Amino acid sequence: MPELKLTLLGTGCAGGMPVYGCHCQACVRSRQQTDKQRKQCTALIEAGETRLLLDAGLHDLPARFPPGSLSAILLTHYHVDHVQGLFHWRWGRADKLAVYGPKDSEGCADLLKHPGFFDFNQTLSPFQTITWGDDSNKLSVTPLPLTHSKPVFGYCIENRAGTIAYLTDTIGLPEETRRWLKTKKIDSLILDCTHSPAIKHPRNHNNLDMAIAIHNDLQPDNTILTHISDELDCWLMDNEQGLPNGISVGFDTLKINLK
Amino acid sequence: MPELKLTLLGTGCAGGMPVYGCHCQACVRSRQQTDKQRKQCTALIEAGETRLLLDAGLHDLPARFPPGSLSAILLTHYHVDHVQGLFHWRWGRADKLAVYGPKDSEGCADLLKHPGFFDFNQTLSPFQTITWGDDSNKLSVTPLPLTHSKPVFGYCIENRAGTIAYLTDTIGLPEETRRWLKTKKIDSLILDCTHSPAIKHPRNHNNLDMAIAIHNDLQPDNTILTHISDELDCWLMDNEQGLPNGISVGFDTLKINLK
Q1: Which of A239, B1, B221, B249 is deepest in the core (most CB within 10 A)?
Q2: Residues of A in contact with B88 (CB under 8 A)
Q3: CB-closest option in A23, A62, A87 to B80
Q4: Which of B17, B19, B20, B82 is most worth mutating to test chain A (most A CB atoms within 10 A of its CB)?
């Protein structure tokens, strides 16, 4: 029985939730209710024997993933909130672990210069699918260019159980990515929605209106918002009926399980 | 009554202790005895109302230091293991906090480009003392160039209670720094000693022989070793009598209290 599981380990933006020193109602709530806290965007994909870490924004990744527990790491991009969990982890003593991501000669800090046990040479090409597992349980991952201030890939993750598209960080979608995704029946779309509709002209991330437009365009079975700011969480507290059918807000530990 | 307090919050090298995946006797011990674990090099200086954070290698600094609890941050340099605690913290909502350090146009990742509430413009000049507090309780801090693969300052920290020199990261000492320090009566010297004597030709950090030579040259009342690797901790487990009088190994939470 094929299975495709994606667990959201972090659904916050760069500052996480609560934001240091912030007294907005969402930050105050998340200090009282720890299940409302958000770590930086990170996810785990599991399909049969294959386990892929999708981004590395959490600080405690070494404790979560002992040597041998991951098949590879996929990076959306090299902004620090998506790779900060690699800085200390890289000095571990373990077999080489492949890190797949977009070509970005800058990388982040000295990660590419001093990779430790990570192998950052696995750069991907847009729309060139890579696979893990054997024919009976093959997992396909396709990098999809997104629109951001650094080279970024979203990923379409597919096996016989279904299709998940993970699209962060982005503002809108490049036309080629949009057209590629429209050929797919998407079960779950995990989508960057950093800002509320009150942020009219965001620069690098979707606001809710933009996220809803992408949802309506791609028509997945359901859309789960991620990379959430405290500003959006405040707006959601004030607008409990604010999300259309089929769209929900992600939270850390949320599991999507396709069978 | 003047007082000068320095607390070692982290005494490890870049990978911390235990090292991920490592089965050496020191790493195994530190998994069983958490007081043997080492976080990345960081210290807190306290003198009267003045509280200075010295480097920022810990991930949980936002929880340890609420807004208003620090007078400033001093950085030795911009290697990632000394600044990684700033990446997420910077997005907080708080009054500007001055970060003093050496001039380094690269900084680390995008810290200088996106400083958040930190003010990285407080670059220091070698041997130019800065002070905090009023005349009755003045704390003086003097940046001292060290020898490393990036611009690095050690710091001489003085008030009427005494003198602490904090010298990491370095291999040996530049002659000018050595001469400046030899004019001082140093109570406590906190000194980079990453490697055991078995590492004969280290590149960026002292081995124990080099640290002992600096101790003998500067003749502080006592020397406390920091930036410790698991390789040195293993050597120390095998050589219990291995340290000369006046030299001891630092540990996370160690307090130096001069009165």
Answers
A1: B249
A2: 14-16, 40, 81, 84
A3: A87
A4: B20
Kindly determine whether residue A20 and residue B89, on different chains, have CB atoms separated by under 8 Å.
Answer: yes
* Span A150-173, pLDDT tens digits: 999 999 999 999 999 999 999 999
Q: Which residues between 28 and 87 in chain A have a beta carbon less than 8 angstroms from any beta carbon of chain B? A: 40, 59, 62, 66-67, 79-81, 84, 87
Residues 6 or more apart whose CB falls under 8 angstroms from that of B23 comprise A93
Query: Confidence class of residue A1 from pLDDT cuts 50, 70 and 90?
Result: confident
Q: How far apart are CA B137 and CA B4, in angstroms?
A: 10
User: Domains of chain A: which residue ranges?
Assistant: 4-258
**pTM for the predicted model, two decimal places:** 0.97
Residue B251 has pLDDT above 90, yes or no: yes
Quick check: B1 pLDDT over 90?
Answer: no
Strand order from edge to edge, sheet including A255-258: A118-123, A97-101, A72-74, A50-54, A42-47, A4-10, A255-258
CA distance between the termini of chain B: 7
ipTM: 0.96
CA A157 to CA B188: how far, in whole Å? 57
Helix (H, G, I), strand (E, B) or coil at A217: helix
Hey, what are A62's tokens? 């070494």
Residues of B in contact with A59 (CB under 8 A): 59
